[in-house]
Design a protein that fits this description.
Blueprint (H helix, E strand, L loop, with lengths): L11 E5 H4 L1 E5 L7 E3 L10 H13 L1 H22 L6 H24 L10
Antiparallel strand pairs: 1-2, 2-3
Length: 122
Amino acid sequence: MSEAKFTPGPWYSFDNKSLNGTYWIGPSSFFSIAEVRNGAEDEEYGGDKAELANAHLIAAAPDLYEALEIAVANLRCATVCSDADEDDEEAIQLRDAWKRDIDRCREALSRARGEVNEDVSS
């Protein structure tokens, strides 16, 4: 697994709607790494409420990344511990579910590190 190369957290969202109509996201109000702009009239994408919610979600990204790394480690430990009882069908199903969860978490972490090529042009 490669190392995360994004700007370290914590990140915060700053309301700059009166200045330039956006929310800024970054470690301080002087260092912006992203801007959220949604157009209040565009209800298809949630309008103002979604704009603020998107800013909060992006600002939480470093914390979510860290939590996901911890979850992967804990799920891996749980699957190793559950390998001991191969006769318990419920334990096997639970272990298999954990392994699927680990795969989903790893995919999300890879995406956050930019290791997944996403074509968003379509």
